[in-house]
Amino acid sequence: MAVAPVSPETGHPPSPPFSAGTQTFGLALPPAGLTVHSEVPGLREAVTALVHPLFEVTDTVSPGASRLWVVPRAGRALPGEQELLTAPQMLLHPDGPRLAVLESSHERTVVVRHGEQDSAPLVITARPDAREMTVEMPDGLSLSVRALVRLLGSLLGTQLIRRGAVFLHGSAVAADGASIVMLGPKHRGKSSLAFLAVTLCGADFVSDDTLVVWADHKAAPPVLRGWPKRVGIGTALLAGHPARGAFERARLRRRRQGDLRTAREGTWSTGPESRKRLFTDLDEFTALTGASIATGTRPAGIVLPRADRDRRGWRIEPVADRAGALRDSVLAGGELRNYSDYLSLLSGPRPEPDVRAAVFGALDDLPCVTVEYGPDANADFPRFWGEITAALALPGREGR
Q1: What backbone torsions phi and psi does residue 83 show, to the nearest 5 degrees?
Q2: 311 class by beta-carbon count within 10 Å (0-12 exposed, 13-18 middle, 19+ buried)
Q3: In CA terms, which of 26, 84, 110, 342 is 20 to 30 Å from 324?
């Protein structure tokens, strides 16, 4: 790609000298890891609130990990709108992010990450061969931190994908280190099952939306972990729920006006046109529900749910062939926009396709059931969940 070099004001030197206020910490989802040097006050604490414990934030850094310097733009303006519009662009999804490439050479690449409604623009200067990157943030406020967290996630995700990891659209909960994975299209009740299993049956929370599965080598058992994202909770689930009062009183970072006031007792819907949700970050979710978060779990069973507002009761049946559900749940293309470094801003490990094939094989061997259920399952959820775990031949947990 032939791109003209940018002005000296854009593109911070990749290896700035450490200042007295520099924070250094490691960010990891083993075996992937990064070393972060931050000159933005309080950044480590802000990142930790959004990602811990699904990402490990540590004082220990790996000598071989890629290095990022995070620095404030110190009042310097972003490149002008005309410069951004005429630069080569990468847009993988209508919701963003948009990556405007301002400079590309053998030595370095300069990119502006922008175009998301809920995050701030970042100026990124990368030296892939040196495995170094500088990220310029406009400030240390929440929109900037959220943009940085998504960038960091794409860098960690790329390392995992090259090592054979599989990203899935699904929810999961765990007990005693064994996880139950809920897969299927949107609006089938995956997140609802996870929320109620955690808050009413004492399961550990893994994720309500995005899962990553990997193995240390092709003969090793797979490990499943959630990805740090906002947790979406259908407001109808809070009707009569023990945690409803806590959610009503909470001042969430992202709360749409009237979320809980519009949840009438007895309403129940999975359709996107009538479904209302509120969103919490991980630290907010655990504080409001008392939930524990499981990190490295062993996938032990698959549930293919189908919520039906007109159905009474529930039906659970074994599934012999779950290959189609697995294939349809794998994230690819634009769905990986926050989990993959499509511009190769940092060099990664050698690809391991044999590990990826082994992970798919292990998932395909798991016991699997379909679960069709209606609104009355919520009122008798511990018994309902106990029947699901029994059908998978897993130990159930019917309460705290």
Answers
A1: -65, -40
A2: middle
A3: 342
Mean pLDDT, consecutive 10-residue segments, the chain of 400 residues?
39 46 92 95 94 94 91 83 88 90 93 93 93 94 94 95 94 96 90 95 96 90 94 88 90 64 49 72 94 95 93 92 89 90 86 91 94 91 96 64
Phi and psi for 355 in degrees, rounded to 5? -65, -45
d(CA 295, CA 226): 7
292 φ/ψ angles, rounded to the nearest 5 degrees: -100, 145
Under 8 Å between Cβ of 181 and 303? yes
> What Cα–Cα distance (Å) separates residue 372 from each residue in 170, 248, 308, 387?
17, 30, 7, 12
Question: CA-to-CA distance for 359 and 220, rounded, in angstroms?
Answer: 9
DSSP character string of 259-273: TTTT--TT-----TT
Give pTM, 2 decimals.
0.87
Name the packing angle between helices 142-162 and 43-51 (round to 10°). 60
Write down the residue that tokens 């860098």 correspond to: 155
DSSP 357-392: HHHHHHHHTS-EEEEEE-THHHHTHHHHHHHHHHHT
Strand partners, 127: 132
> Distance between CA atoms of 20 and 50, rounded to whole angstroms?
26
d(CA 394, CA 400): 17
- Token match 């995956």: residue? 190
Rounded to whole angstroms, the Cα distance separating 299 from 313 reads: 27
Tokens of 367: 């016991």
Peptide bond into 31 cis (omega under 30): yes
Strand, coil or helix: what is 210? Answer: strand
